[in-house]
Structures are given as structure tokens and as C-alpha cells.
Design a protein that fits this description.
This is Sigma-54 dependent transcriptional regulator (Modular protein). The chain is of the alpha+beta class. The chain has a 6-stranded antiparallel β-sheet with strand order 3-2-1-6-5-4. Strands 9-8-7-12-11-10 form a 6-stranded antiparallel β-sheet. A hairpin with a 4-residue loop joins strand 11 and strand 12.
Length: about 850
């Protein structure tokens, strides 16, 4: 059996499969990138030749590749740290990998003329050869992961292929950490806005308010002064009302400037933010720019001061150094200005203070909601735990009677409903139900990517074509709001909220729900990413366990031995069908080599690099066979203490070999037929459909056609399995192969027992060829093993008398092959006192499995005499 790893790595000091499993374990343990890469630097060198491991990410704003982490395998005494180094895309090897999405191997940095800035820095710390692999998830390109060595030509093609697999696992973790960092930044921003709201609520004096803000805001937005400029309707000019600065200034409150000559006037008029990155280069507003230059102001940003009722003016943030304001900084200033505007309007209009105080309280509650939702998103990676937490936060701020999520199942393409919360637990929506109507209320939000709000009349118009709309009306819903869950230009689903009351959802409600939906989308994406990591980790673990079991299994023989015409005809059939994905049914007596033919089919197919999974259907108790084939969820039945991955899921992308397929009970044959036809199934105890890409090879020593006539086997499954039947001839039909098999087994067992057997007597070989071998190759193998044990010299000892006594054909004691087989089995049963199983039982003596012998006894009508 072979998997996706190269041969060179399989013979290395470490186990690449175990290394990949450890990478998955490291990813699940670390959320901090430096810690993760330090861990990888300790785990991976056992299977990959590198001394340095680095993380380089693409910066879309600057169009450069930035070194984020650089770790060494051992204490190499490197003092020249490259963390934080930025390299232009066209001059960066990692930039080439990010652009082309292909690994890049540089055998010798000394001979490499491209990418001089980046490679020069690496040469300065002793790197001689280099390998970069792309860091890319299903959603986006992140950058590259680099592996450096102190030796030239350290990396081969096999190493690059292995490291590229590592990069695929690490990419999901890096994307996850970046999302986590973004969430942390968002949490800090929301906390700051909450502090601003509380500061506004606690300060009646606006000068003290601005002083307080000047102490709080530089944590996220660096600035040296803050001011408020208001429009004076009487003079139609902009008036500097408040100014807070850490440095002495000639600018004084009360300064008036015409609207067209003031940055604040332009912002008040257009209601758009204005940024000036370098005052020295600004030609507009000459009068104010002269004052700014005199006071050392080099850059500033102005945002509108506006409430829901009127435009007040503008709020400015200035810097004594040239700087470029980022979009997130401008957005934060705008949000601060909105809250300051409310407080400012309160101060200017005492009689409306209570109204605006309520608005400020609502804004504070909404900011607190977003902070709580953010905290829930950060602290809950499991969707089942996240949804109730989000719903509890939501209910405290926005009155609603029910909420739900509609999420897309990537495997089936179906939309599934997840209930969040309903008042008094009177949910009318079935948890996990499939939403099949393309005209459901959520469809508009998902299709357009915009919030969709429906009143009772709109729901009635949709009720004829949408069962969900009708159910909302039956529930008494008067208004319904659906918001898309958007992430990286794709729609994950929709957040739905409904009300029974008369009041609909206001634009402010919709805006707040849209912000909540953004955070829920991040949470859903994070949960899906962690679920992908967990699934990959489980798959690697199960493959590791299965492969270890395979390695420990003693096969009947290592290769197909024989030169007979019958065997060559079978091998020709194998060559013909191996390269296809068609189902193959291997027929033949027990011990004739059906499993070996199945392995040959897999080895010659395009799936040979993936897993070959086998299952003996007769060896598994009937009650556990379904779980073994399809897996089960935790708690699916008594004793199911953990989730189990079935053999079909384990064989995804590869081949599954179902031996003794005739032993599958009728009630399970229906599910097997579905997998063959649709390539999909559900685990026991689960409603989630799993799709796989598996080639099925089945084998049996029973007459399935006769079983179909006797209604013991489904005819539709029989014909679905019998796409390409291959009949393996019994050993008695290819007697010319017996000498080759005898020599093969003699060499095998003599080497194992450290004996030297050089010849096989001609009379013995003739007797071996004359014997019918009802147990086929397996019986011959066991017989030769016994002969080698009994041989004391260089000549194989074969008891020809024993073969002649046992021979069921040609001695006149039996008239048919069936009679001969019955007599042979009866003889073995008498000699073992009718003990079938165990080392000394009849099955072992005949060289066949216990279940196979029981099947033959039933077929031949053999029963123990009373």
C-alpha cells in the first residue's frame, strides 16, 4: 500500500506520516504564530533537512512580502534577525511563490542572481540552499513558508513535496491566527468605543471630554492634537470651538474661517472625511495651512460631526509628523465623532438633552453588544456553543421573538437551518431542516449580499412559493430581517431575526444586525476551519492506525507467482480494468488469491498513491458491520463513546476492498448500493451526508447468482457489483504453477527458519501436482511450511503417502469434485474431533478461515453426527 508521500521520505530517519500528524497536533495546540513555528522547528527536522523555518506574508496595502517569523532548528548563534523585513514583490522569492502558487527550490544561494535583497539577507545568516512553498487556503493566498539549510542542494523533489503538504496544513492555522488577531483588534476597538461612550456620559464639560479622549484615543489612532470646529449659521463660517494639544499653539478657540477656506468647512459641506498626509504639499486652504505649518502640524484628518438631526461641524485629529492615515483609523475617528456629536449637540441644546442621552445610551448598549458578541466569537470555536451566546447578547439590545441561521453545507450544496433562540421555547422551525425553496425570505439576502427586510404584506406575497414565509406568518411574525454572512467574497449563509410586534426593524437596527452578522460570519468561518483541521487530524490518525495494522498483517504471499495460461488470462483482465474506476467483482474459492488480485488492481490504478482499505465482511459481527463501513457519531448506540470514521470515509480518494461480500446482511445491502451509485452516505446517528470518491472492489467465494435466486442477496446490488467480474482459477486448474509456487514457498520459509533446502524430489513434486488442493494456494503454503519444518537436510521432505491418501480425485473413492471436497473436509473434522476453530482445529488444518469452512460445511450439507 502507498500513500501520497515519496519513497525517499519513507526511508528517512523519521516517519513523514507521523510528522504530518504532529503538524496537525501542533496547529491544534498553538494560536501564536512564533510558538507554532518554534514547535515545527523542533518536530520536522526528523524528516526534512532544514536549519531555518520562516513565515513570509503578503501585505496587500504595500504590495510587499513581509517576514513575520524566523526560527532556527538549534541554537545557531544567529544575531542578524530578519523579523519585520519587507521585500518588494518583484525582488522576493516568496513573492514569486505567492504569485505563481508553486513551490520554489534554490539549490545554491551563491549561484542565484535573482531576488538579491531577500537572498542577500538570508546569506548573511548562513543560509546556503532554500525551499519556499505557498501558504494558501480555500479562501485566499496568504504568503509563503520558507525552509533554509546551511548546506547547498539540501532539498530534493521528495522533500519539496513533503514540505508542500506541511504548508497546506500550516496555511489553515496561519489564516486562523490572522482571523483571531483581527478579532482581537476589533475587540480592542469596540472596548475603546465603549470607553468613549462612558467618557461622554460622565463628562458634562466638553473641554474635559476632549482632554479625556486625547488620553484614550492614541492607543489606536496616534495624534498630537484634537479639535472641534462648528458651523455658525449666523455668520455662515466655521468656528474653532475647542482645541486640546500637548504642545503650545498660536491657534485659539474662537478662530473663524470661511467655509470654502476651511478643511472643516469642506467636511461639513460634503459629509466626507478629509485627510492631508503632508501639510507642506497642501495647496488648498492657504491661510490655515500657514498657521498649521507655524505650529509644526505636518498631517491631519478631519471627520464630520453630525447627529441624526443636523450637521454640527467637524472634528480634527492632527500629527506633528507626516503620516498616512489607514482606512481603519479613519473609520474609528468617524465612530468617535458620531458619539462626540451627540454629546456636543446635548451641550448646545439643553432642552433636547434627555432625548440625546437616550440615543447615547442605545449607542453604548450597541457597542457593548458588539463587544460581547466579539468576546463570544473569540471564546467559542464550536458553533453549537457560539449561537446561544450570540442570541443572548442580541436579545438584550434588539427586541425580537426568534432568530436562526441558514448555513450552506459545502459537501451537499444544501442550505440547513440552525435555530438560535425563540421566545418561550416555542420554536416552529425544525432544527437541521433543509431549506429547499429558492424563494425563501433569506434567499434575497444570500443572492444580493445585502440586508433584506420584509413586512407582513411582503411575507404574504411570498407565502405561495415559500413554505418558510408561510410558517413565519403562522408564527405571527409581522416583520422579518435577513442579513448575509459574508466572508472573503463568498456567502456562508444568513442571520435571520423576526418580530411579532407591529414595529418593524429600523435602519439603525439593520445596521447593528449587519455588524453582528459580520462577526458571526468570522465565527462560522473559524469554526469551519477548525473543523477542517480536526477532520484532517482524525483522518491522519486513523490512516496511521490502519497502516500500522496493515504493516503488522502477515499476507499469504508477497507477489503473484505462476506462469499458467489461466493465471495469465486473469492478469490480462486485471491490466485491462485497473486504470478505470469501474467496480470489480473477484470470484474464486477460498485461498485462491482474491485479495492479491485486489491489491494488484489498486497498484496499477491511478489511485495507487492513496489509501487501500480492506474489510472482511464475514469477520465483523452483523450488528457492528454498518458502523465499521460507514462510521458512527458519539452516542449513536450503547457503547459509542466517541465519533468513529468508517472504512468508506477512510478510503476517500483510494480503493476499498470488501472481502466475503456475500456475507453482508440484506438490510445493509441497501446502504451499500447507495454508496456504489451515489458515492454518499450518513454515519450512524448523524443526518449529515458525507460524499466520498471511492473505488469498490468486492470478492466472494459464494455463488451470488444462486443467492439472488434464493432471495439471500439483492439482485440490484449483485448487478451493480458485477460490472467487471474476474474469476480466479483454483490451483487444481493450473497445476503447472505448482512447481513455481513450491519453490517460492520453500525459499520463503527456509530463509525465515534459517535452513538450507536446495532440492525438491521429482516424485514429491509430481505428487504435489497431482493433489487437488481444495484449500488452494493457502493450503499449499501451509503444507510447504510444514514440510520445511520436517526437513532435516538440503532436500525438502514431502510425505507423498499422505498426499495420495488425501487425494480426492483420481483414486476411485469419489465420483465428483464436490464429493471429494466433502470427504476431505470430513476427514479433517474427524481428525480434530470436530473442532473447527483454533490453531489445532479443522480450519487451520485445511488452510482456510473458520467462517469459510463453516460456509462450505453448510453448502455441502456436513453436520456433526449426534
Amino acid at each position: 500500500m502507498r500513500d501520497t508521500l515519496p519513497t525517499e521520505l519513507e526511508t528517512s530517519a523519521g516517519d513523514p506520516r507521523k510528522a504530518l500528524l504532529q503538524v496537525a497536533e501542533a496547529i491544534s495546540l498553538h494560536r501564536d504564530l512564533p510558538a507554532l513555528f518554534r514547535d515545527l522547528a523542533q518536530r520536522l527536522p526528523a524528516v526534512a533537512p532544514f536549519d531555518f523555518i520562516g513565515l513570509v506574508l503578503h501585505d496587500p496595502a504595500k504590495q510587499v512580502m513581509k517576514v513575520h517569523v524566523l526560527e532556527t532548528v538549534e541554537a545557531l548563534g544567529v544575531t542578524n534577525r530578519l523579523d519585520g523585513m519587507e521585500i518588494p514583490m518583484e525582488e522576493s522569492a516568496s513573492g514569486w511563490v505567492w504569485s505563481h502558487q508553486q513551490p520554489l527550490m534554490i539549490p545554491s544561494l551563491a549561484d542565484e542572481t535573482r531576488y538579491k535583497p531577500g537572498l542577500g539577507a538570508l546569506r548573511s545568516i548562513g543560509v546556503q540552499s532554500l525551499c519556499f512553498c505557498p501558504l494558501t487556503t480555500a479562501m485566499r493566498r496568504l504568503g509563503a513558508i520558507g525552509f533554509g539549510s546551511l548546506r547547498t542542494s539540501a532539498f530534493g523533489d521528495a522533500d519539496v513535496e513533503f514540505l508542500n503538504q506541511v504548508a497546506k496544513l500550516v496555511a489553515v492555522a496561519v489564516d486562523n491566527v490572522l482571523h483571531h488577531q483581527a478579532l482581537s483588534d476589533e475587540r480592542d476597538r469596540l472596548q475603546l468605543l465603549l470607553d468613549v461612550t462612558e467618557s461622554i456620559a460622565s463628562h458634562r464639560d466638553l473641554t474635559r471630554l476632549l482632554e479625556d479622549l486625547a488620553g484614550r484615543l492614541p492607543q489606536l489612532v496616534p495624534f498630537d492634537f484634537i479639535d472641534a470646529v462648528l458651523h455658525d449659521p449666523a455668520t455662515d463660517k466655521m468656528r474653532l470651538w475647542l482645541l486640546v494639544t500637548s504642545e503650545p499653539s498660536t491657534l485659539r478657540p474662537g478662530l473663524e474661517t470661511p467655509i470654502e477656506e476651511s478643511p472643516g468647512g469642506l467636511v461639513w459641506k460634503t459629509q466626507q472625511p478629509l485627510t492631508v498626509h503632508d501639510v507642506a504639499q497642501e495647496a488648498r486652504f492657504p491661510g490655515l495651512m500657514t498657521l498649521f505649518r507655524e505650529n509644526g502640524v505636518r498631517a491631519f484628518c478631519v471627520v464630520p460631526l453630525t447627529t441624526a438631526h443636523r450637521r454640527l461641524g467637524a472634528m480634527g485629529f492632527g500629527s506633528l509628523q507626516p503620516r498616512v492615515y489607514e482606512k481603519r483609523e479613519i473609520a474609528l475617528m468617524q465612530q468617535v465623532a458620531k458619539q462626540v456629536a451627540v454629546a456636543l449637540d446635548n451641550a448646545l441644546n439643553g432642552e433636547t438633552a434627555l432625548t440625546y442621552q437616550g440615543q447615547l445610551t442605545r449607542e453604548r448598549d450597541r457597542q457593548r453588544l458588539l463587544l460581547e458578541v466579539n468576546n463570544a466569537v473569540v471564546s467559542h470555536l464550536d458553533l453549537d456553543q457560539l449561537f446561544p451566546a450570540v442570541s443572548a447578547c442580541l436579545r438584550r439590545v434588539i427586541q425580537h421573538d426568534g432568530s436562526s441561521l441558514l448555513l450552506c453545507n459545502d459537501e451537499t450544496g444544501q442550505w440547513r437551518i440552525h435555530v438560535l433562540d425563540f421566545e418561550r421555547n416555542e420554536s416552529f422551525i425544525e432544527e437541521g431542516r433543509i431549506e429547499e425553496s429558492p424563494r425563501s425570505p433569506s434567499c434575497q439576502a444570500i443572492t444580493t449580499g445585502q440586508a433584506a427586510v420584509f413586512g407582513e404584506n411582503e411575507l404574504r406575497e411570498m407565502a405561495d412559493s415559500s413554505p418558510m414565509a408561510q410558517e413565519l406568518l403562522d408564527f405571527g411574525a409581522k416583520s422579518f430581517c435577513s442579513l448575509p454572512l459574508l466572508s472573503h467574497n463568498r456567502t456562508l449563509g444568513a442571520l435571520n431575526v423576526c418580530r411579532r410586534g407591529e414595529g418593524g426593524f429600523s435602519p439603525e437596527d439593520v445596521q447593528l444586525l449587519a455588524q453582528v452578522a459580520q462577526q458571526v460570519a468570522i465565527a462560522v468561518e473559524n469554526a469551519l476551519a477548525f473543523r477542517e483541521i480536526a477532520a484532517l487530524k482524525d483522518k491522519l490518525a486513523n490512516e496511521k492506525v490502519y497502516l500500522e495494522e496493515e504493516i503488522q498483517t502477515a499476507y499469504n504471499f508477497e507477489e503473484i507467482v505462476g506462469d499458467s495460461r489461466a493465471l495469465k488470462q486473469v492478469l490480462k483482465q486485471v491490466q485491462t480494468v485497473a486504470t478505470t474506476d469501474s467496480t470489480v467483482l473477484i470470484l474464486g474459492e477460498t485461498g485462491s488469491g482474491k485479495e492479491l488480485i485486489a491489491r494488484a488492481l489498486h497498484s496499477l490504478s491511478d489511485r495507487r498513491e492513496r489509501t487501500f482499505v480492506k474489510l472482511n465482511c464475514a469477520a465483523i459481527p452483523t450488528g457492528l458491520l454498518e458502523s465499521e463501513l460507514f462510521g458512527h457519531e458519539k452516542g449513536a448506540f450503547t457503547g459509542a463513546i466517541a465519533t468513529k470514521i468508517g472504512r468508506f470515509e477512510l478510503a476517500d480518494g483510494g480503493t476499498i476492498f470488501l472481502d466475503e461480500v456475500g456475507e453482508i446482511p440484506l438490510e445493509l445491502q441497501v446502504k451499500l448500493l447507495r454508496v456504489l451509485q451515489e458515492q454518499e452516505f450518513e454515519r450512524l446517528g448523524s443526518t449529515r451526508t458525507i460524499r466520498v470518491n471511492v473505488r469498490v472492489i468486492a470478492a466472494t467465494n459464494r455463488d451470488l447468482g444462486q443467492m439472488v435466486e434464493e432471495h439471500k442477496f439483492r439482485s440490484d446490488l449483485y448487478y451493480r457489483l458485477k460490472v467487471f467480474p474476474i474469476t480466479v482459477p483454483p490451483l487444481r486448474e493450473r497445476a503447472e504453477d505448482v512447481p513455481l509456487l513450491v519453490r517460492h514457498f520453500v525459499q520463503k520459509f527456509a530463509a525465515r527458519m534459517k535452513r538450507r533446502i536446495e532440492t525438491v524430489p521429482a516424485e514429491a513434486m509430481k505428487a504435489l501436482q497431482a493433489y487437488s488442493w481444495p484449500g488452494n494456494v493457502r493450503e499449499l503454503e501451509n503444507y510447504i511450511e510444514r514440510a520445511v519444518i520436517l526437513s532435516s537436510g538440503s532436500e525438502l521432505f514431502v510425505s507423498t503417502a499422505e498426499l495420495k491418501r488425501a487425494a480426492p480425485v483420481g483414486n476411485g473413492s469419489a465420483t465428483t469434485l464436490e464429493d471429494a471436497e466433502r470427504e476431505h473436509i470430513l476427514k479433517a473434522l474427524r481428525e480434530t474431533n470436530w473442532v473447527i476453530g483454533g490453531d489445532a482445529g479443522a480450519a487451520a488444518r485445511l488452510g482456510m478461515k473458520r467462517t469459510t469452512l463453516q460456509s462450505k460445511m453448510q453448502k455441502l450439507g456436513i453436520a456433526r453426527p449426534r
